[in-house]
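Q: Predict the bound structure with pyridoxal-5'-phosphate.
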Amino acid sequence: MKQSRRKFINSIGAVAATPLLYTNEPIRFSTDFWENLRADFLLTESRTYLNNGTFGPSPKLVVDTIKKSFESTNTSGEYGHTDEVRKTLAEFVNADVSEISLTHNTTEGINIVCWGLPLKAGDEVIITLHEHVGNALPWLNRAKLDGIILKPFQPATTAEENLNIIKKLVNDKTRVIAIPHITCTTGLIFPIKEISEMARSKSIFTAIDGAHGSGTFNLNMKELGCDFYATSCHKWMLGPNGSGFLYINENQLNTLQAIQVGAYSDAGWNMFSNPPEIKGYNPTAHRFDYGSQSKPLYDGAAASADFHTKIGKAKVETRVRELNSYLFAGLQEMKNNLTILTPEEEQSRICMVTFKPKNHDYKVFANEISKAGFRIRQVPESGLNAIRISTHIYNSKSEIDRFLKAVENNV
Ligand SMILES: Cc1ncc(COP(=O)(O)O)c(C=O)c1O
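A: Predicted complex:
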């Protein structure tokens, strides 16, 4: 039968829309690899998604892994274990499997660290004035309940300045530096490696809010050298909502007290002894996650790590930086009408750009941009009243061009 023109065009579309990473075939990195990667995602074409910093939509591969895992647990009746996932996530960030605790989001990891550290009234914690509520509230709560003292600082725009600010805040009461790797407000990167080195030399704990660190950087915990790193799988890793993990440096495993415990937290317990007792804790970071977990969700998290690994983590980081610089440069051309709040220094930004229109209220501007078909995020935090744009590997330069045009029409 003869094919109609419409059917023919559709079939071309279908060929172009074949996911690139769906099979076990080796990837062919052609020049338009990144442009074609969009075909691996379910994300609607009806609007341009520029809000990965809030939620990273999963590739089909991840969604299908979750579906299959749900089917498998429910057909077999075996709810399964997450040991393999723990291994995959450990490898993903170059940590030992004993250093990884599975969590449900970044905030949970931060709470485990915040409440598990041996702190007393008067101990000081260095934190920023640009925190997400997820890093602010746990430390504020511990300050309220246990009398620790928070020392917030205003971030500067270069890595060197930020390191120096933190060095100056350190005194003999400082016990923790609890800052983000990348801020949610302006996308500023803190030089965690250098900060951790300095902190270690003074026996200060480094508790990093890594919500935006996994899936952007070619993350390597051994190199980064911090004590604790809490992250989510649902942002830049492109995994499912409700999955995350906490890295606990092996040197700190015995320092961090497990507060909430259950199955897998212990190394034996006895209710019949006098007195009844926990005989010991699980020596690994598995001590901090307990009870039944959702295997399908964590299988999805592992699939998202595999998705990045298959492309190559270094390649992902390069592409994320490339799109960020492309957007940054485009916005810089409109400097008369808007103020860019994200640092210009390349080592201090990676995946988000935040700016403020000079002549319009940011909410009015956001409304117009949304009507024009773009999903963006407003940043009321820290009184910035600005607009945040995040771009990930499924975005294209042509989408950024269209966004820049829309900005030009509205500033
Ligand atoms: C910097 C930062 N920290 C923490 C969080 C909280 O992450 P979660 O919702 O995974 O707990 C976010 C979420 O946007 C964030 O941007």
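A: The chain has two domains: 20-59+313-410, 65-310.
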